[in-house]
Amino acid sequence: MKAWTRPLYSRERVNVAGDMLIDPLTPHPDRNEALFIIGNWRSSHSYPLHSLKMTLRRRALLEDPKALVAQRLKRLTSIAAKLERTDGMKLARMHDIGGCRAVLRTMRQVNKLVKLYTTSRGKNPKTRAEFVKPYDYISAPKVDGYRSIHLVYKYRSDSPAHGCWNGLRIEIQIRSRLQHAWATAVETVDTFAGTVLKISGGTGSEKTDWGRFFALVSSYIAIKEKCPLVPDTPTDKKKLIDDIAKIAKKLNVEPRLRGWMIAMHHFEDEAVAQTRAIQTAAVFLLTTNAKTRNVTYRPYPQHLLQEAQDEFLRRETAAEPGVQSVLVSVDSMDKIREAYPSYFADTTAFLRVLDEVMKGV
Question: What would the mean pLDDT of 260-279 be, rounded to a whole number?
Answer without folding.
Answer: 60
